[in-house]
Amino acid sequence: MNPLLTKFKALEDNVERALIPFLVIGDPDYKTSLDLLKAVAKEADMLELGFAFSDPIADGKTVQQADQRALKAGMTTEKNFELIKELRKETDIPINLLVYANLIYQQGIGKFFRLAQQAKVDSVLIADVPPEESNEFEIRARKHKIQLIFMVSPLTNKERLQKIENKTTGFIYYVARLGVTGAQEDLKARSLKHLKEIKPIIRKPICVGFGISNKDHVRAVVEAGADGVIVGSALIKIIEQNLNKKEELIQQSVAFVKELKEATRYV
């Protein structure tokens, strides 16, 4: 069993679900990002790390600005992997990458997945590559023992859902709302209903992201059957609000992650 599935099973046995914070590597700078990730990793079950990209079509304003801060700080794909290697010295929790295909093509597909393996990355989600165009990535990922993650949404019908599940070797990323990433006040009832409907027919773990921004959202998707919850924009906003206050940035982020984690536990 791969490390991702092992982690999901351990959490299930402990009557809880995975909390997966999302952060852009290098936001707002290399050292602060590394220190923040070290602190957050102690409270989280997994991490989802974004590689800053100039045209992140799946991301809203908050993540776009995080990308710009990281790029301005000089982050590159090579530096991203260097930071992950540093982070790996202090945590062994699963690390999942969210990237865009251009960044992989720039390195070369084989080299990218080799670097990911060397950094002990567990899985990769390529946000702009659908399953129908993923064969070359699958071959390289398999060679380097990296799991691939694909997205589904409330509009995904059962036939396509099955095809996506067959392509997925990690977990299925369930997009809780249509459009781009970003914190929101309310979860769509349609998404929760659809999640409940598909959960019994899916064998792979399902993790819910896009718009999850508080403990009530976390509790709602856990009760709807999610195996994990991904929170990004609401966490990144804490960075945005504390750019010149590193200690407060880390303290507030850790406190927020702890609060969210509590909502993943069944009582």
Structural description of this entry:
This protein has 267 residues and is α/β, with parallel strands linked by helices. It starts with a helix and ends in a 5-residue tail after the last helix. The chain contains twelve helices and eight strands. Strand 1 (18-24), helix 2 (30-41) and strand 2 form a beta-alpha-beta unit. 48% of the residues lie in helices and 14% in strands.
Fold topology:
Blueprint: H1 3-13, E1 18-24, H2 30-41, E2 47-50, H3 61-72, H4 77-88, E3 95-99, H5 101-107, H6 109-118, E4 123-126, H7 135-143, E5 147-152, H8 158-167, E6 172-175, H9 189-198, E7 206-209, H10 215-223, E8 228-231, H11 233-241, H12 246-262
Parallel strand pairs: 1-2, 1-8, 2-3, 3-4, 4-5, 5-6, 6-7, 7-8
Helix pairs in contact: 2-4, 2-12, 5-6, 6-7, 11-12
> Could you tell me the radius of gyration in angstroms?
17 Å
Strand content: 5-15%
- Note the total helix count: 12
Q: How helix-rich are the residues, as a percent range?
A: 40-55%
Q: Identify the overall geometry.
A: globular
Q: How many strand units?
A: 8
Which structural class best describes the helix and strand composition? alpha/beta
Outline the biggest β-sheet.
Answer: 8 strands, parallel, barrel
Oligomeric state as shown: single chain
Order of helices and strands: HEHEHHEHHEHEHEHEHEHH
Mean pLDDT: 92
Looking across the biggest beta sheet, what order are the strands in? 1-2-3-4-5-6-7-8
Low-confidence stretches: 179-185
Distance between the termini: 28 Å
